[in-house]
Write a structure and sequence with these properties.
The chain has one domain: Orthogonal Bundle (434 Repressor (Amino-terminal Domain)). The chain has a two-stranded antiparallel sheet with strand order 1-4. It has a two-stranded antiparallel sheet with strand order 2-3. The longest helix is centred in the C-terminal third of the chain and has 11 residues, at about 50-60. It is of the alpha+beta class and about 80 residues long. The chain has helices at about 15-20, 25-30, 35-40, 50-60, 65; strands at about 1-5, 10, 70, 75. The chain is built from five helices and four strands, in the order E-E-H-H-H-H-H-E-E. It is globular. Helix content is about 50%, strand content about 20%.
């Protein structure tokens, strides 16, 4: 059985938020999540749902790929 390990989603939420001179709370309120969600997302400890990713990109008026990047991990084969 082939499984994927180590895949992740990197983001530039922090960079976009700072450019807009917004607090984490302001961004959280604007996209309908908690401040804690924004905090852990900026630390790359949380990958948002597709809906939230698109909501954030829409808020910043950019393509979702400008903020979120898929990083493929290594493949591991198990028998």
């Amino acid at each position: 059985m082939k499984e994927k390990f180590g895949d992740s989603i990197n983001n530039k939420v922090y960079e976009h938020r700072v450019l807009k001179r917004m607090s984490q709370k302001e961004l959280a309120d604007a996209v309908g999540v908690s401040k804690q969600t924004i905090f852990v997302m900026e630390k790359n400890n949380y990958s948002p749902s597709l809906v939230l990713a698109f909501r954030i990109a829409d808020f910043f008026n950019v393509d979702v790929k400008e903020i979120f990047t898929y990083v493929k991990g290594s493949d591991k084969n198990e028998n």
